[in-house]
Amino acid sequence: MKAIVYYKYGSPDVLELTELEKPIPNDNEVLIRTKATTATSGDCEIRSFTFPILFWLPLRIMFGIIKPKKNILGLELAGEIEAVGKEVKQFKKGDQVFACTSGRFGAYAEYTTLPEKYAIAIKPSNMSFEEAASVPSGGLNALHYLRKGNISKGQKVLINGAGGNFGTIAVQLAKYFGTEVTAVDSEDKLDMLREIGADHVIDYAKEDFTERGKKYDIIFDVVGKSPFSRSIRSLKENGHYVIAIPSLFKILRGLWISKTSSKKVIFEFAKDMAEDLIFLKELIEKGAIKPVIDRYYPMKQMAEAHRYVESGRKKGNVVVSLANNNGTGKPESNKDINKSEYRSDIAPA
């Protein structure tokens, strides 16, 4: 099978297209033929190993101190089940699925195995493989953090870093839950954020949301760059400051704030669960969530996909097709795709 591998940490140039043996599923596993995956900020961080100092040593021990222990990246995928282990009950050969690979990674290969208990669900009927591949990681994280913020109808929610894969789904989920959403990101992403439902948008380069004098029930900092003290002041009483990428400073101060006031600081990592992915599937099929896809790349251009993600210009998701060989990574046929006006459908030259 073809796979994108890396044997050392570094720039996108460490990614190589190679041939590997097709894996064989264990008794409790499914073998998935991957049709599409994504290039995410998480994949790029692991490849280059650019993590905050708080997480550097434990993650280096987990992923490999000198060189990577796992040589195939990829946090999410969509594809078709090719085989199942004898203990598998929920899936069968031929099922079209989407999944989050969690700490196993492995989506950057034509075939991957995952335990049945992982976050795997039948693909939404109104999505292509390429669209479905862009949902699991960002969707599961966005759902987790909004729930941790005790989101409920009528609240005011601010999402900082709303233009990426987590943020674009978080905006749509927050609207689904009946809240008033303020989205913060760069100027070139604001129109897209309005289109997917944001009630208010802020260009972070021109305005500090904490200086507006407005109070929020939830401040969800997707990128971990909001000013701590001013964000706490921008919370209503009993409000939740949710930080997806916390620094040690924010963790320590957050513990103190949560203990000594009515405001809560949340930084608990998401657990990828199949029931949550099924919930997202149902919302997608009802039209409550649509993916934001900036660019498509073919498998052979994975390094270019990573470079684009690291440029900071990405709107929503960057999808990599392993199934289509038309040179662009775009779906070869759109007849079964529920097209979204939010997709720019840009392919690299």
From TrEMBL:
It comes from the Bacteria. Residues 322-349 are annotated as: Disordered. It holds the Pfam family ADH_N. CDD domains: MDR1. Residues 332-349 have a biased composition (Basic and acidic residues). Residues 10-320 form the Enoyl reductase (ER) domain. This is NAD(P)-dependent alcohol dehydrogenase. It comes from Splendidivirga corallicola.
